[in-house]
Amino acid sequence: MFLEGLREAIELLLSFDRELYGIIGLSLFISLLATLTAGALGVLSGILISVTNFRGKRLLKKLIFTFMGIPPVVLGLVVLLVLAGPLSNMNLLFTRTAMYTAQTLLVYPIITGSIIITSEKTQQKVLETATTLGASRNNKLMLLIAETKPFILLSIILGFSRAISEVGAVMLVGGNIRGETRVMTTFIALNTSMGNYGASIAMGLILLVIAFLIHTTIARFRSDFYD
Amino acid sequence: MKKLVIACMLIAMALTLSACQRKELLLVTTTSVENSGLLEYLLPYFEEEHGVKVRVTAVGTGAALNYGRLGQADVLIVHDEKRELEFMEAGYGEKRAVCMYNDFIFVGPDSLNGQNLENALETLTEQHYFYSRGDNSGTHLRELDLWETHNIDINRFGSRYKETGQSMESTLMMTSFKGYYTLSDRATFLAMNDNLDLTIAYEEPDSLRNDYGLIKVDPSLHNRDDSAADLFYEWMLSKEAKQLILAFTVNDEPLFTPNE
Amino acid sequence: MQVTYPEFTLSFEDDAFPKNKVTFVTGRNGVGKTSFLKAIGKLLPYRGNIRYEGFATYHFQEPILFNRTVRENALYPIKIRKLDCADFEDKLKRYASILHIDHLLDRQAKELSSGEKMKASLLRSILFAPEIVLLDEPTTHLDLESIDQLTMLIKTLKPTTTFVIVSHNRAFIEALSDHVYHIGGKYVHR
Q1: For residue C188, what pLDDT is reported?
Q2: How far apart are CA A101 and CA A82, in angstroms?
């Protein structure tokens, strides 16, 4: 059965079926957009939180680290209830916008948290060194951003990886609607439950390739930056 | 400490062995059957009487029949006559019977006020948004069948026709949220009624009858002992089971009607 | 001058560290030499009086360089002071060649060996001409030749810079010192 499925999968992929590739495109588009948004916000938040001291900083950090690990489906549930309840007049339920929002919310704490964690490692000595050289607070902020760049990239890649591979949030807030909100992961869920293993395997292979590309990139970064 | 570990291992072994002694039955069914709660209510009677443990998995009809073909199931309860018959014809099932039935109903925010089925269908295509299961489930195939039989062109929906590719429950929730219309089996709808903001938009129990087929998978497809499967098959068609099924109600309405 | 930390107090006379001279601070491990230097460099809080004119830069025993070239590292303090980097190009080349790292100026600082990193970091600390340079065990990671090069650099800078150096390297101390203070003796009160 598996071999049959594999064969069907390869046929499907080579046939350049419009619907299939449309779904792949949508997944990439939404996850990319969400990651970039979350990235911009997250990098700023992460660095600002790292360099400034304020009351409640510890609590905020704990909060961010907790949300880093929130199960996507739980986040999806929250967004669903908000879109169906208080914000129902905005008619965002089961739309691409809803999926984009959910994924942005999912990835934001991951990026912010990663930046904080990696910044704190580089932060102390870099900032101290900067002080010895006469840097102002703004100088230090710019310096930290420059020094954390590789980690920023890493965090963003990690965030994207999470976004593209999750199925819980996009299923709940998107509704898996054919032609509108169906993405790679929800497609796999659907076809597997239907018994269309060929289609599922096809999509699964693509996801694997993407995941593989992501992680080899991460590995390359890791080795590049062993001090 | 060592003694404790050995004691635990012995207990674990004893438990697993004892579980192996009991006869087991693998029943694969569709989500509408499982989620209605019928099996949870019904199976303990069978299990106690015959000392058999029934393991239930709910998947889509397509997957269920697949499991049957692979010998990964002992008994199936599905609701798709056409594909069931194909299954039997191909020799994958040893025996089949319709054990119970209910009907399909159109649900939505308001009644469709249709005098007949064709009317209702047309009104839908002309005025309303519709969620289709879109997953080749029994319900989905029945829905497609209805359009075809009554010569309704679903292109008239335009973009108001959407496929969710999800279970009946999810689809019903989505329908309720958005104020759309959909086709559902009565059992799932009744079971979920409290959570939904929907009403029966059109019903015609005679034309929209939904038969549930009980199929015993051909034992030669697997090398398990099929005596438990036989027991279950007979029991599901017995008078006792029929009474129990009839007694399974929501607001005094039985979700499934046993077949005579 | 008297410097007090949570644990102990150091007392020196005013003018104990004279201008444009090299003063060494020695003592056993853990006695407070690094803390003292850090205090001067304003990295550590203290109670008491430390007075000097100009900017005092503290150089770590284990320095870290930024993710950029050696040249960019060295020019960083100049950039942040909004000065013209071209003005310092001459000095940059000169000091770099004294330290024998002029061929490394355009290399990524993080790729250097530990000795080269040390020299690059030292270059960064002196290029912007701070009035006071505080070196914490600068001979760490340096081979004998490099130590000579560093000695030469310090001698070159002495007329315009005050050095306070923590070190345990006898030869280095003897080659350079104008004064030596040994902490743990008469200068420490607990």
Answers
A1: 47
A2: 12
Structure letter (DSSP) for residue B259: -
Q: Which residues pair with A96 in a beta bridge?
A: none
Question: Which of B60, B135, B178 minimises the CB distance to A94?
Answer: B178
Q: Please, do chains B and C touch (3+ CB pairs < 8 Å)?
A: no
Which of A77, A93, A178 is best to mutate for the B interface (most B CBs within 10 A)? A178
Per residue of chain C (190 residues), what is the pLDDT tens digit? 555 555 555 656 555 667 777 778 877 777 778 888 888 888 887 777 777 788 999 999 999 999 899 999 999 999 999 999 888 999 999 999 999 998 999 999 989 999 999 999 999 999 999 999 999 999 988 999 999 999 999 999 988 888 888 888 888 888 887 767 666 544 544 3
Q: Which of C104, C97, C100 is nearest to C146 (CA)?
A: C100
Spatial contact of A149 and A209, defined as CB atoms under 8 Å apart: no
d(CA B3, CA B1): 5
Mean per-residue pLDDT, A71-91: 90
* Domains of chain B by residue range: 2-102+211-258, 103-203
Chain A CB contacts of C124 under 8 Å are 133
Separation CA A213–CA A201 (nearest Å): 18
- The partner residues of C189 in beta bridges, in order of sequence, read C9
Burial of C180 (0-12, 13-18, 19+ CB in 10 A): middle
Nearest CA-CA partner of C43 in C5, C8, C100? C5
d(CA A101, CA A95): 10
- Spatial distance between the Cα atoms of B197 and B27, rounded to a whole number of angstroms: 33
Closest by Cβ to C64, choosing from A129, A136, A150: A129
- Token readout for C49 is 């009086």
Which tokens hold the place of B158?
């335009």
Q: Is pLDDT above 60 for B75?
A: yes
Does the pTM surpass 0.95? The reply is: no
Domains of chain A: 2-226 (1.10.3720.10)
Domain B2-102+211-258 and domain B103-203 have a common topology: yes
**Nearest Cα to C124, choosing from B162, B230, B60, A129?**
A129
Beta bridge partner(s), residue B215? B76, B96
What tokens appear for B184 in the block? 């559902």
CATH of domain B103-203: 3.40.190.10
- Rounded Cα gap, residues A24 and A21, in angstroms: 5
Which of A1, A175, A193 shows the shortest C-beta gap to B164? A175
- Least-confidence region, from A63-67, B49-53, C48-52: C48-52
Contacts of C42 in chain A (CB under 8 A): 131
- Beta bridge partners of residue C2, listed in sequence order: C11
